[in-house]
Specification:
8% strand; four-stranded antiparallel β-sheet
Length: 277
């Protein structure tokens, strides 16, 4: 594509974009809304996963040894506990180290928190274990949040992507309808479908790109506001928010890619049907 053609297509795309101000605004608006919703649920899933990994690294199951066991007998149970499926390590803690603890115990770390409940039951059945202390509710809460956010995110991506493409496609259709006589004359004098198609592709590209940039800026502001709210809320201090500085590059890349794909996909869908008609 020559420089002259590029300038022409860009000019035509911009003209088309502004000639239907309301529909262009609607197309950009729905793209922003779709990307913002998808981005929000994705970031919720990312943060839930980060908190889950943190809990996984810090989480310990305390297995208290039967008080009839001697310290030597208790220590000998380490190999049995470490042989339990999903147990990463078992560290012996003597009751002599803490006068408030009346029994020897093992601090056990698991490999996969999703299997913690069944692992606790297996540890409970090990001979010599007299009691278990595990915060399964907290772990299960993070897992539930992550799984729900992931499912919603995938579903919304599919639905909202189709909606965005539909809106932009209809915006392009209005442009092609208004210019149907001009396009018919261009085809009569030998203009190729590609030459006719490119201005609309540029229009869709710019609609999608504009929506992606606006959505990213709004997502950034929303994320920082929520992160600040969590940091200043005493009841939410347990949560750890991943800094946006660590996420902005992939978020920007995904938003730009999705926005351009939505815009160009919508424009190609609209103009293809028109040129085939």
């Amino acid at each position: 594509m020559g420089k002259h053609n590029f300038s022409y297509f860009l000019h035509e795309g911009l003209s088309n974009m502004f000639s239907h101000g309301f529909m262009s605004f609607a197309a950009i608006g729905i793209t922003v809304a779709c990307l913002l919703i998808m981005g929000t649920f994705t970031l919720v899933a990312v943060n839930a996963d980060a908190n889950l990994k943190q809990v996984e690294s810090e989480n310990e199951i305390l297995a208290f040894i039967d008080d009839t066991y001697t310290e030597e007998q208790a220590k000998a149970m380490q190999s049995k506990l470490e042989a339990v499926d999903n147990v990463a390590s078992a560290t012996f803690i003597s009751q002599d180290l803490d006068p408030n603890i009346l029994r020897d115990r093992f601090a056990i770390k698991v490999k996969d928190l999703r299997k913690q409940s069944e692992t606790v039951e297996k540890i409970r059945n090990v001979e010599g274990v007299g009691g278990i202390s595990a915060y399964a509710e907290l772990t299960n809460g993070f897992i539930t949040v992550r799984n729900i956010a992931t499912v919603i995110c995938v579903a919304l991506i599919a639905v909202l992507f189709v909606i965005s493409v539909f809106i932009i496609s209809n915006t392009i259709k209005l442009t092609t309808f208004d210019r149907r006589e001009e396009i018919a004359i261009m085809k009569m004098v030998g203009a190729t479908n590609g030459f006719i198609r490119w201005p609309f592709v540029y229009e869709g590209f710019m609609l999608g790109l504009t929506g992606a940039v606006l959505a990213f800026l709004l997502q950034w502001g929303l994320y920082e506001a929520i992160a600040k709210g969590v940091d200043t809320n005493d009841t939410l201090q347990l949560l750890s928010i991943v800094p946006f500085a660590q996420l902005w590059k992939p978020v920007a890349g995904v938003f730009l890619g999705a926005g351009v794909l939505i815009g160009v996909g919508g424009s190609l869908s609209a103009i293809r049907r028109f040129l085939q008609g």
